[in-house]
Amino acid sequence: MEGMTTIPTSQKPDVIRLLLETEGRVMLCVDATKPGVQVPRRFSSDNGLRLILNSIMPQPIEIGPKAVESELRFGGIPHYCVIPYEALWGVFNPDTHHGMFWTESMPEEIRKQHGLEESLTQLPKPEPTPVPEAEPVPKNKKRFELRVIEGGDTPSATIAPEKRTRPNLRLVP
What we know:
By secondary structure, the protein is an alpha+beta fold. The protein has helices at about 10-25, 110-115, 115-120, and strands at about 25-30, 50-55, 60-65, 65-75, 75-85, 90, 100, 145-150, 170. The strands form three sheets. Strands 2-1-6-7 form a four-stranded antiparallel sheet. Strands 3-4-5 form a three-stranded antiparallel sheet, covered by helices on one side.
């Protein structure tokens, strides 16, 4: 957890988007015991559940105002998951270790395991740190961005309203 910074819960979706856009992969550290978390029942008592999202996953990842939602696979079996931001205590790329932890959202047992319990009671909370800007992409390399699209690859104007699905995020060059 070295090098991780505490930032407000409201910025959790921004950190997820930034890591997916710049690094393509993000691990969510979730307290699955919190209300509103929807994961397979066998993981519902895990306060240190880790879920990986990848920007090249074929299914959509919805990074909404209150939760992250996506269909994830557990042992090859799909399960629609909902992760409210209140249950999210860490977000990072497992390869580069870039990311953030929110100690105020961490379960007490996790804080104790990492020696954070004493530091939380002795030190004042740090000022929020802005999410760093992404490094410029070389001109010979394509940069991708996330855009909301309606119902897949077909423009929404050509889809009858009753057949439209909810908006999805896709990487667009």
